[in-house]
User: Which sequence fits this backbone?
């Protein structure tokens, strides 16, 4: 019995490593796992800290917007970045310009806008390239005073021989400085008197063909652009330079010389020649010479000073007009060489405000000199412009006019000009 | 015989000379902004003759191109622009020039916005009620030098495509430029690291890319909405905002009218910080690298 007990004890002693080994292994494995887990947790913890710091940094530094990739292709003014697969990208640019004018005047004439608030002009503007060589621009005009009209509808064609550019259709010929501008681009509520009386109340807009090109000169500080055109006869609303017959064409040419005096100053001197008929014959008996000088100086990048002058001299080859009266025939000789000019100064005081003034002198056409009280219509006035934004502008203007036929007028204008949509002005 | 050969060789050199130099005539490039022109000159070197339209002294949104600019575009082989709707005047300029080689989509046109990550891209419907909003995102992307690197690459790709004879030179110029920026970028970033998250007031929304690059904030501007001149109400709001947030400076580009910024600075004690939006805007910003350098130094000095 005793020997059995000893054997059992021996067995137990000998056998002990046999059951003790797995436990130790398990403990060792567990220890390793815990160490690995601890390392992983520490690593994750530091990663989280780094990421949290980065997020905080980003949140602080980023603006509200998230970066977006820029359109890969060139974006034209009328294209959207998604233009590639969107046929609407071929739709024309469409813009609407509204010109609302209130006018108080001593004149008793029921003229356009007199003593009333009027939607003087509402321009609906379309434009888009036709193909790589040409572009179409259309301006339809509506008013609460006149019938709707087609102010412009012309094709611009590039790439002609000699780097000549052509415009064909109904257009504003590049005559002088003020006439080619739409009313919304003028510095004043009204056209200068010499332009209104000789070319038309809204400037000249005719159907024709115009060619223009820069003269190839070796110098770079001065550029010379030569423009010439032929247009249907007739003249703008109320204009007196040519007669109303449309089948007798008129011709014009202009040389525009531009000096880059410095980064902040430039001078433009232009000469314009026009010839046409005052009646239905084919003679070009009316000649006109226009001279213009415009100085622009930026006092600061915001404060722009412009001094613009235009003069028109006519040679009308007037015949003696004979009228039968009860006292017998009476001859009237109209003025052969009427002329007129204006001088305008415009100063942008600040981003919001601008001021200016204009002086006008115009000798009338086809009026019996015997009926004139003075040689000419003379006007002067000033204006204040408030630029509400890039797309809205308000202008208050005063004008005093002494008429050649006698009498005078004091008028006050309030003009609001706004634009919506896409509208591209030609360079002046 | 040798003398005759020498004579013929000399004559050949004289005759061929003009042909070689004519071939090496620099490419005429017109860029809308002075910064783009500077980058083109940096990459193009002697291979390009570059003109810019917008003087850096003027607001690039409202440039009135002159007849002399029209003539330059007319003669250009390459027209470089921002690609977005910043230079709205470039359409009439191209129309007036009539140079179809540089019209949109032609080989002679280069839009530098390619590959740029844009900020402030409008979400949802847009209208002018939001001011002079930019349809495709903020177009002032060149103020971030990381974007400067992308623009340089885009310019190099285009010059190499239209003038493969000088590709090696363009690539070398690009590498030198990128190396310089790679060296400077960490330096610029670390200069402003201590001030990350600090807030400034801006003039116009022209600085988000620079702020993004340097980790600074600019939430409010003198313009209440893009392109709308400062209003008394906005100035009053900013006066309280600056005081509440202890904002140290009002950032202004040299072309932006100084009146509102100076008046606000007087009322709040904040400094007016004149930065360069474009190369050449101030004498210190004579090229792209010095422009970023100047802007970073000015910001760091103000925030110290």
Assistant:
């Amino acid at each position: 019995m005793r020997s059995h007990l000893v054997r059992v004890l021996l067995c137990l002693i000998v056998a002990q490593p046999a059951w003790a080994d797995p436990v130790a292994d398990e403990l060792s494995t567990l220890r390793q796992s815990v160490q690995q887990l601890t390392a992983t947790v520490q690593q994750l913890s530091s990663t989280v800290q780094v990421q949290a710091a980065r997020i905080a940094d980003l949140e602080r530094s980023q603006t509200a917007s998230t970066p977006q990739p820029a359109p890969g292709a060139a974006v034209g003014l009328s294209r959207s970045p998604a233009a590639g697969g969107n046929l609407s990208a071929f739709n024309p640019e469409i813009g609407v310009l509204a010109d609302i004018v209130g006018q108080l005047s001593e004149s008793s004439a029921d003229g356009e806008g007199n003593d009333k608030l009027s939607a003087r002009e509402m321009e609906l503007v379309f434009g888009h390239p036709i193909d790589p060589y040409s572009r179409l621009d259309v301006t339809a005009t509506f008013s609460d005073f006149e019938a709707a009209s087609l102010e412009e509808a012309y094709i611009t064609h590039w790439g002609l021989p000699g780097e000549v550019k052509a415009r064909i259709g109904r257009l504003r010929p590049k005559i002088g400085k003020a006439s080619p501008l739409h009313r919304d681009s003028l510095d004043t509520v009204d056209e200068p008197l010499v332009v209104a009386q000789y070319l038309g109340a809204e400037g000249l807009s005719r159907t024709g063909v115009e060619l223009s090109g820069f003269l190839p000169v070796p110098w770079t500080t001065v550029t010379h652009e030569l423009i010439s055109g032929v247009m249907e006869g007739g003249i703008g609303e109320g204009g007196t330079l040519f007669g109303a017959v449309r089948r007798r064409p008129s011709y014009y040419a202009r040389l525009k010389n531009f000096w880059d005096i410095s980064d902040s100053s430039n001078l433009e001197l232009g000469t314009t020649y026009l010839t046409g008929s005052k009646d239905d014959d084919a003679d070009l008996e009316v000649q006109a010479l226009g001279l213009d000088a415009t100085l622009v100086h930026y006092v600061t990048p915001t404060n722009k000073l412009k001094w613009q002058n235009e003069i028109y001299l006519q040679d009308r080859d007037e015949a003696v007009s004979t009228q039968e009266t009860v006292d017998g025939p009476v001859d009237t000789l109209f003025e052969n060489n009427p002329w007129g000019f204006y001088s305008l100064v415009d100063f942008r005081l600040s981003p919001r405000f601008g001021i200016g003034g204009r002086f006008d002198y115009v000798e009338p056409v086809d009026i019996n000199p015997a009926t004139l009280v003075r040689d000419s219509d003379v006007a002067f006035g000033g204006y204040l412009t408030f630029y509400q934004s890039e797309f809205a502008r308000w202008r208050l203007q005063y004008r005093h006019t002494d008429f050649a036929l006698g009498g005078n007028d004091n008028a006050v204008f309030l003009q609001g000009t706004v634009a919506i949509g896409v509208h591209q002005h030609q360079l002046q | 015989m040798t003398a005759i050969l020498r004579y013929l060789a000399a004559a050949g050199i004289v005759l061929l000379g003009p042909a070689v130099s004519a071939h090496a005539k620099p490419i005429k490039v017109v860029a809308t902004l002075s910064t783009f022109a500077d980058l083109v000159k940096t990459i193009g070197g002697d291979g390009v003759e570059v003109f810019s339209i917008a003087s850096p002294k003027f607001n690039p949104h409202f440039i009135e191109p002159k007849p002399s600019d029209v003539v330059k575009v007319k003669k250009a082989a390459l027209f470089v622009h921002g690609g977005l709707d910043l230079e709205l005047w470039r359409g009439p300029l191209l129309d007036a020039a009539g140079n179809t080689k540089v019209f949109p989509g032609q080989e002679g046109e280069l839009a530098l916005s390619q590959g740029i990550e844009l900020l402030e891209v409008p979400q949802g419907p847009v209208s002018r009620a939001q001011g002079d909003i930019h349809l495709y995102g903020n177009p002032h992307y060149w103020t971030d030098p990381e974007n400067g690197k992308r623009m340089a690459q885009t310019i190099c790709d285009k010059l190499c495509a239209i003038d493969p004879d000088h590709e090696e030179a363009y690539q070398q110029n690009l590498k030198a430029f990128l190396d310089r920026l790679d060296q400077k970028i960490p330096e610029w970033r670390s200069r402003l690291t201590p001030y990350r998250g600090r807030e400034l007031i801006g003039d116009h929304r022209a600085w988000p890319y620079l702020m993004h690059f340097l980790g600074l904030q600019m939430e409010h501007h003198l313009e209440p909405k893009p392109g709308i001149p400062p209003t008394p109400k906005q100035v009053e709001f900013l006066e309280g905002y600056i005081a509440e947030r202890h904002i140290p400076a009002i950032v202004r580009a040299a072309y932006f009218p100084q009146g509102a910024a100076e008046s606000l600075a007087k009322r709040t004690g904040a400094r007016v910080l004149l930065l360069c939006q474009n190369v050449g805007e101030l004498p210190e910003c004579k090229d792209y690298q010095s422009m970023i350098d100047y802007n970073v130094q000015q910001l760091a000095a103000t925030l110290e």
The longest helix of chain A spans residues 2-61. The mean pLDDT of chain A is 84.
